[in-house]
Amino acid sequence: MIKRFGLLALLVACDSSPGDTPDTLDASETAPDIADSTEPDIALPLRGEYIPADPQLPGDPARGYQTLSAGAYTGCGIPSELMPVADSLGMFGDDPPLPGRDEPLPYYLSRFPTGSGVEVVGPNCFTCHAAIIDGELVLGAPGIDLDFGGFASQIASFQSQIPLVADILEPESLAELERFANRLATVAPWVQTEVAGTNPADNLAGILFSHRDPNTLAWHEEPLIEPPDKLALPVDTPPLWRMGKKHAMFYSAAGRGDHSRIMMTTSTLCVDSLEEAKQIADTFDDVRAWISTLEPPPFPEATRGPIDRPLASTGEAVFLRECASCHGTYGDPSTRADDTYPNLWIRAEDVGTDSAMAIGASHAASRFVDWFNGSFYGETAWLDPKPGYVPPPLDGLWATAPFLHNGSVPTLRALLDSSSRPRYWQRLAGWNAADIGLNFREVSVGHAELTGPGRRSVYDTTLHGHGNAGHPYGDGLTDAERDAVLEYLKTL
Ligand code: HEC
Ligand code: HEC
To answer: Is there an atom of ligand 1 within 6 Å of 265 CB?
Structure first.
């Protein structure tokens, strides 16, 4: 996203006119309902709780995808008359378009009208929630190539270039450009992360809430409630295809009630009136419906090697014994109809993973929870963060590295053997087929001893919120059992 905003900043050197193209889309098929669990009939191994289901309104998945690809849900962007030059300068590189969208825009940008009627191009949900894996665009996969490190300086340079185009834009378009730049500049100090690839979305929500009146949604230049800490805790973007099974959104099970209303909080960026927010809300039941039909991509045996089926079936037995009580059971992947998922959250001290996000995270402070619950967004949904973490559904796990809520563990093998987890590690290009996850190199020093641009590429698990301990449930496995479970996990 950050590199992309840097590219957008260069756009202000152009004076071309917009080319508008209507969107078309094939209807996406509807997935079968997952067998919905009620109270689990297993004995809970540790202190945790069942998360009951909240009713969700039905929606049309195909329309939801259309909204995601061309909806006005962020409310701001760059006036689209400034865009064609970006394409002509090759700024979007090889980034593919969104399937079904007849637009010369990369998948992470959308064209839509703002509240003032100016057509703009701005980032969409796929900025964070899509990835290119083995050359294929996978919608819903976590976008882990984002580096928020240079955000503030790139926004500053974006702002400084606005005067260069002031003369060639209509006054309404110039006002939209300034609004977008000013909004990004206001939030920029709160989206700083320490490691490339970790996502500051939770902190972003906190700073956006703090600038808005919860009743009218009017934006105030000065915060109305105390903002969160500036440095964001690291969050590993989750895949969207888990939502077909999950009763609560987010690692801490905070997102309850009508999920569509929570999914639309992206609109706290620039949607500045209740009227606009209501219009967006009307389209988000469809978005929720599309997300709940998303299927994980199957393990690509053609490029990454065939799955050893007999070994995987040995692994399934180990999984059922050691893992299923928290993570559920998985039937035929082509229908998923006989999957079960217990919908639990487990106390942070019991799972033992880094507790900073679950306990005392500034972005989850009660003033933000109260803001949300008392706002338009809280009419049909509510936030109720738990002091723990949800054991997620493990479908499509191979495509979701790194692991844990903070992305501190680069491979599944390391996740299942806590003694082997690297303390300081640097991501390398490519894919780690043997251990399932990221290719990485263990390095001998952490951030305290590193200076220069390479520092952000090192995941330092000794930093606050970045710890890689806990989740010891694979430690007792023999090497053969671990190999078998890893093989089984590829089949989910
Ligand atoms: C700036 C990056 C970013 C953008 C843009 C973004 N998200 Fe997310 N999203 C995240 C992160 C990070 C999380 C995990 C937060 C947590 O659990 O604390 C998340 C969580 C979610 C979840 C819950 C997943 C789960 O397993 O609990 C859903 C659903 C979701 N986002 C949908 C959307 C939709 C729909 C949009 C656009 C309207 C969107 N997101 C825009 C980063 C982003
Ligand atoms: C007592 C409940 C419990 C048991 C048993 C358990 N897990 Fe987990 N698991 C969790 C929780 C809670 C998390 C989330 C922790 C976090 O993100 O900090 C998790 C996270 C994970 C993740 C990371 C998912 C991701 O995308 O980041 C994987 C993979 C995983 N577990 C696999 C397993 C396997 C395999 C087993 C059996 C060997 C197992 N778990 C046993 C509770 C459990």
So the answer is: no
For residue 239 the two structure tokens come to 């895949």
- Rounded CA separation 153/119 (Å): 26
Element containing residue 13 per DSSP (H, E):
none
Residue 464 and residue 230: Cα distance in Å, rounded?
13
Residue nearest to atom 20 of ligand 1 (CA): 250
Q: What pLDDT shows up at residue 197? A: 94
- Residue 336 above 90 pLDDT? no
Are the beta carbons of 8 and 165 closer than 8 angstroms? no
pLDDT at 256 over 60: yes
Tokens encoding 385:
């963060």
| CA angle (112, 213, 226) in 5-degree steps | 115
* Nearest protein Cα to ligand 2, atom 10: 391
488: left (phi over 0), alpha (psi -120 to 50) or beta: alpha
pTM of the entire structure?
Answer: 0.92
Distance 395 CA to ligand 2 centre (A): 12
d(Cα 262, Cα 388) in Å, to the nearest integer?
A: 20
Give 424-432 contacts, CB < 8 A, sequence gap 24+: 424/458, 424/459, 424/460, 424/461, 424/462, 425/458, 425/459, 426/457, 426/458, 426/459, 427/196, 427/197, 427/457, 427/459, 431/134, 431/304, 432/401
* Cα 451 off chain centre by: 29
Specify the pLDDT at position 48.
76
DSSP string of 457-487?
Answer: GEEETTSTT------GGGTTS-HHHHHHHHH
249 alpha carbon – ligand 1 mean position (Å): 9
Contact 148, 21 (CB under 8 A): no
- Given this model, what pLDDT does residue 370 score? 97
> Any residues with CB less than 8 A from the CB of 241 and at least 6 apart, and which?
140, 294, 295, 296, 395, 396
- pLDDT value, residue 46: 55
Q: Are strands 136-139 and 344-347 parallel, antiparallel or unpaired?
A: unpaired
- More reliable by pLDDT, 340 or 165: 340
End-to-end CA distance of the chain: 30
- Ordered by where they begin, the domains of the chain are 8-297+359-388 (no CATH), 301-356+391-489 (1.10.760)
For residue 145, the SS3 value is: coil
pLDDT of residue 39: 47
